[in-house]
Amino acid sequence: MSFHQPPVTFVSQVNIKVQSFERSLAFYEDVIGFKVYEKTDKSAKLTADGKTVLLSIEQPSDVIPKRGRSTGLYHFALLLPDRIDLAKILKHFLQSGYPLQGASDHLVSEALYLADPDGNGIEIYTDRPASKWEWNEQQVVMATHALDAENLLAEDMEQDWNGLPAGTVMGHIHLHVAELEKTEEFYTKGLGFEVVSRYGPQALFISSGKYHHHIGLNTWNGVGAPTPPANSVGLGSFSLVLPDKASLKETVHRLKEIGAAVEEEKGMFITEDPSGNRINLETAK
């Protein structure tokens, strides 16, 4: 998990909006395996280890269903500590009957895909050792092959699934955006990430510290896709953790230099990418 701690810049938390709070809370506890860290009538902060919030869910008072063909969340991705943890949760999904949308071998990782009751995309994955990742100069080699589920389930599971393991982190986030040129400038020149993979003119993957990707960006909902209404189901915001206060100050300066708006609220800096995806900028505690 060295790619999710200083001096790397990484995604720490994702905040989503849901249509039915009680339905979503039941899903994230019973199906995904989160624990409640904090809860109100219409919102909850969720954790794997009881200390670190990875996901928050909220039901806006005037919520409307998820809008199609818009910018926002493609999926958030929970990174499990070990391959056996992925085997346990796959077995859990199969036993519970909850439908998966996909299961892939990306060479750098093995991943399961599903959606919550509102259509918010979720990836649950485990990384292969970074020493086995292949790089072509500055580009990491990734692919999308069918996951060998039989091989995964052959892991020696002495214990059954018991929720998300304590070492789970928010591995990455993948976003729908309206275009890639200004978006790439925002995330590289502004936030300081490096492009580590391109998929033609429709998608790129960026990271810090030579991870295979901390953020994915795509135009699969169409070039020029609109930003959804603020009360729509979907992404509320996500948090980026920068190494220290000096890095945060430099990042805010770079964002302003390229014309991005940055606001400060209660000691936190908040910005939006060119597609309206809201980002909270924080420093490692």
UniProtKB/TrEMBL annotation:
GO molecular function annotation: lactoylglutathione lyase activity; metal ion binding
VOC domain span: 10-127, 169-284
PROSITE patterns, alphabetized: GLYOXALASE_I_1, VOC
Superkingdom as given in the UniProt entry: Bacteria
Keyword Metal-binding: yes
Name of one Pfam family that matches: Glyoxalase
Keywords: Metal-binding
Gene3D superfamilies cross-referenced by the UniProt entry: 2,3-Dihydroxybiphenyl 1,2-Dioxygenase, domain 1 (3.10.180.10)
PANTHER family: CATECHOL-2,3-DIOXYGENASE
Designated name of the protein: VOC family protein
Source organism phylogeny: Bacteria, Bacillati, Bacillota, Bacilli, Bacillales
